[in-house]
Structures are given as C-alpha cells and as structure tokens.
Design a protein that fits this description.
Blueprint (H helix, E strand, L loop, with lengths): L8 E5 L6 H10 L5 E5 L5 H12 L9 E3 L7 H12 L6 E3 L7 H11 L5 H5 L6 E3 L6 H6 L3 H11 L5 H14 L19 H17 L8 H17 L17 E2 L2 E2 L1
Parallel strand pairs: 1-2, 2-3, 3-4, 4-5
Antiparallel strand pairs: 6-7
Helix pairs in contact: 1-2, 2-3, 3-4, 7-8, 8-9, 9-10
Length: 263
C-alpha cells in the first residue's frame, strides 16, 4: 500500500487486529491513503496508542484525511491519547469514533480537542481542521438534534474547508466571547495583548448574534431572549474595553531594522 499510485481507501473490518506489531506495519503502509477504516476489531489500549502515534505523525504531502474507528471497544481512557494526538494533526478532516465504549466524559474530552475556551492560547492551539465525534454522524440534521449548540457551531467551523485557519480561530474566539446560557469568556485572558481595533470586535460579536437569530439556530431558542443576550454581551464587552482584536496576528511583529536602528 505504501506509495501506491492510485489507492485511496482501505478497510480492515473484523480482522482481529490484536497483534500490535502487525497493526503498526499496516498503519505505516497507510501513511498516504486518504481514507482508512479500522472497524470492529476490539482494540486494546496498546493498539489505540499505535493509532494515536499514526495520527500525530500524519505526514504531508498526501496524508490520511478520513479515519473510521467504529466498533473497536475504545474507552474513555483511550480518548486521552487520541485527543492528544489530534491536537497535533493538521490534515485529518474526519475521525469517526461511533459505537465505542466512550461515555459523555470521553466525548467532552474529544470535543475539547476542537474547542478549548479555557484561554486564548488554548483556543488557538485547538484542532481547526478535523470533525471528531463519538456518536452517529449522519448529516447536518444530526448536529441540530444534539443538545449542545456550541458543539454544533464548532463542528460547522471545523468542517468549513473554504476558510483559513485564522478565520476559524477568529470564529471560535467570537463564539467564546458570546458564550451560551449566560456564560461569557473571561476578558482577563486578553489583558496582556496589544490593543488593536475595538469596533471590529463589536462588529464580529453582533454578526455572530445575528447569525444565531436568523440562521440554523432559529426556532430552537426564543428570539427575544437571543436579542437580549446579544445586548448583554455587547454591554459586558464594552465594560472590558481593553479587549484587543488579535485575530490577524496573535503577537506583535518583530521590530523593523532600518539603518541599524529598530523601529
């Protein structure tokens, strides 16, 4: 399979891949395969660790983009390794972990891989390319049926391959600022960053609120409450007026040297 000129998809279904040495060799051959399916193999933790290593070292220029790991008895403990490796992968577009032994706790850990609003750095360091889920993912309708609207928005952001990583980070920052159910992003996370253009931040927050009101979340929430929440977010953001825009460049550019002097 390695460096095969045309093979795009391979599937190892119900193969009893309990021999980790064999699994490692198989994955080495899958490094340039676009779609890899390893299903119904009752993988133990050591095997999941090998898969995690494969995900973390996923090399360009033609890396794997889709991994189907359904029905493998993967547990919450195994998701710790998977989440760590997925944070370091920038090529995968979808990882399907449905029908494993992953509970709500494991799901939260996997979701945090895509969206961790603990701080500005944690948002930036999240995975912005891959949709990761441990439940049946059959289409956009299934996202709407999920109880967590934040999850639906993050999935939508990561699935949008027509926008840049910077744009995805921008959207996740706005999502964190807006929050849901009265929760707001801690503005103190921005205190040490330089102050760019505040009106642009307000514009993005307002734009986000309008999208929630008029698009895919319409009908799921009381529109009057949504408008009230939007005004509340603007009020709290204005109170934290030192909040910077950061979105184009997260750090100040190095000084420009002209004639031996720095400017």
């Amino acid at each position: 399979m390695s460096n095969h000129p045309s093979l795009e998809s391979v599937a190892f279904i119900n193969c009893a891949l309990t021999n980790t040495d064999i699994l490692r060799v198989i994955l080495e051959g899958c490094a340039t395969i676009n779609n890899v399916k390893i299903e119904a193999n009752k993988l133990e933790s050591e095997a999941v660790a090998i898969i995690s290593d494969f995900i973390q070292s996923n090399p360009p220029p033609t890396p794997t983009e889709y991994m189907n790991l359904r029905h493998n008895s993967i547990s919450d403990d195994d998701t710790l390794l998977l989440a760590s490796s997925l944070k370091n992968n920038t090529h995968l577009r979808l990882v399907n972990l449905a029908h494993n032994d992953i509970t709500e706790e494991g799901e939260k850990l996997l979701f945090k891989t895509m969206y961790d609003p603990t701080s500005m750095d944690s948002i930036v360091e999240s995975n912005h390319t891959c949709v990761i889920h441990a439940w049946d993912f059959t289409g956009k309708e299934s996202l709407v049926q999920r109880s967590n609207p934040v999850e639906a928005e993050v999935m939508k952001i990561n699935a949008d391959h027509d926008i840049s990583t910077k744009q995805k980070i921008r959207r996740k920052v706005v999502l964190a600022l807006c929050g849901f159910e009265g929760e707001l992003f801690d503005l103190a996370h921005f205190n040490d960053l330089p102050l760019p253009i505040m009106p642009r931040v307000l514009e993005l927050i307002q734009e986000h609120s309008q999208i929630r009101t008029h698009c895919h979340l319409k009908g799921l929430y009381d529109e009057n409450q949504l408008e009230k929440d939007a005004l509340s977010r603007l009020f709290h953001t204005l109170r934290g007026w030192e909040l910077p825009l950061l979105f184009e460049n997260l750090h100040s550019p190095p000084p420009i040297k002209t004639g031996g002097r720095s400017h």
